[in-house]
Amino acid sequence: MATPMDLLRSNLSRVRIPEPTNRIYKQECCVSFDTPKSEGGLFVDMNSFLAFGKEYVGWNFEKTGNPVYLHIKQTKKLVSEDRPLKKPTLLAIGTL
């Protein structure tokens, strides 16, 4: 069975390296309103640099044949309540 790295190496010729003039659309899906904060995150096609939501990745793959995607997902990190606050308790201006 092929490992994910072997699959990536076999499709490396389809991956483009972005140049300074390329626009990379990674803030929102180009078909729906999915963002990196959505449940499935975003998948950026590494050839066209267009982002797709989880349900549209298959559609894009069938259309273009590009199998390599960058998965971007943002999750909220919970802050524990027992952590001390790092807010300043004193404010002193012009003191030594």
UniProtKB/TrEMBL annotation:
Among InterPro entries, the record links this protein to:
UBP13_Znf-UBP_var (IPR041432), Znf_RING/FYVE/PHD (IPR013083)
Domain annotation Ubiquitinyl hydrolase variant UBP zinc finger: ranges: 15-77
What the entry lists under Pfam families is as follows: zf-UBP_var
Q: What is this protein called?
A: Ubiquitinyl hydrolase variant UBP zinc finger domain-containing protein
